[in-house]
Amino acid sequence: MSATRTATKSTTVRRPNPQDMFVWEGTDKRGKVMKGEQQAKSANMLRAELRRLGITPKVVKPKGKPLFGAAGKRITPLDIAVFSRQIATMMKSGVPIVGSMEIIANGNKNPRMSTLVNSVRADVESGSSLYEALCKHPVQFDELYRNLVKAGESAGVLETVLDTVATYKENIEALKGKIKKAMFYPAMVIAVALIVSSILLVFVVPQFEEVFKGFGADLPAFTKLIVALSRFMVSWWWVILLGAVGMVVAFIMAKNRSVNFARFLDRITLKIPVIGQIMHNSAIARFARTLGVTFKAGVPLVEALDTVAGATGNVVYEDAVRRIRDDVAVGYPVNMAMKQVNLFPHMVTQMTAIGEEAGALDAMLFKVAEFYEQEVNNAVDALASLLEPLIMVFLGVIVGGMVIAMYLPIFKLAATVG
């Protein structure tokens, strides 16, 4: 249940106290038992509010926190997209922004998200703009989101901008999901193949080695190789494990901390057959959709390009967009600046030029984004079909090769006996 809140005029703006969640039980005027949960500054204030609504409170107590998972799940971009959609819908229906956030916070099942929304609501209720309130949470609300909200507040179309942002985040997350799907499947298969191979080398091959010692005959070269590899794994497995973990950690740290390494990695990724084209199309789609959204929201073009650079998901394209921004800042049209970086296909620059001439740059950029998002979808589906037989061959060669190596001496012995 939610209680209607009345605002009183005051010359000074007072910041509300933090509110806790209470569980209450009471009876209405007909004697019917009613239960609920509600946030309040104190149990006494909640009792007073319930009496005002015609409910006689019997029990009002703080809501207990679960032993496990009390902090809640981490806040994802999709959570922010849902929040944006909800608040835009309620604001369009005439619900004030503070009331909208109170409803969203009370109805959210993720405690972290509820805490975040309540924090933003408290700042807005104390007199801050939504943009100023969001600036206190830069991890959840990135620079692009904040700039769009600022533009929406300045133009008086905040609910429209929030709805646009929600659509944008949903599309971008769907695109990211497609990319992750393209990378996850082969990575998991390779990981499983390595784990199975390690188990065979550490536990199975030594058993066969004991059997081979009783043959008294020379082992095939392939079998000797597998046996030697098995001995190495049994003796030095901890070194191999530490080395693998160290390489992964070093790779992640280098990627996150070294711009040069990230740029080198992104350049190499863009040149990989099939996957490189998917990454190209993904970066173009994200560039077009992000620039379209910011431009439509009324963000100045140079400022929009500065924000868009970090949203492309690729350091190579990020550098290119910053060069485009510098050219646009001195008066070049966007399409001409895009041609100079030599990364965008002819179709993209031509559609951008048409959009600039027609005064509908945002609409044309959205069409470009839709086209390249569909290209990514098609490429990912094609990649999955292409990888399936290759993965089967890979598994057959790795696992099947070791099995054959173990049985070769047995076949050789059988032929000798025969």
Write the layout of secondary structure elements.
Layout: E1 20-27, E2 33-40, H1 43-52, E3 56-62, H2 77-92, H3 97-107, H4 111-125, H5 130-134, H6 143-155, H7 158-213, H8 221-257, H9 259-271, H10 275-296, H11 301-309, H12 315-329, H13 334-341, H14 346-358, H15 361-417
Antiparallel strand pairs: 1-2, 1-3
Helix pairs in contact: 2-3, 2-7, 3-4, 6-7, 7-8, 7-10, 7-15, 8-9, 8-15, 9-10, 10-11, 10-15, 11-12, 12-13, 13-14, 14-15
Structural overview:
This protein is mainly alpha-helical and 418 residues long. The protein has 15 helices and three strands. Helices cover 72% and strands 6% of the residues. A three-stranded antiparallel β-sheet has the order 2-1-3, with helices on one face. A hairpin with a 5-residue loop joins strand 1 and strand 2. The chain starts with 19 loop residues before the first strand and ends with a helix. The N terminus is likely disordered.
Q: Which structural traits does this protein have?
A:
single chain; 418 residues; mainly alpha; three-stranded antiparallel sheet; 15 helices; flat; disordered N terminus; cell membrane; transmembrane; membrane; cell inner membrane; transmembrane helix
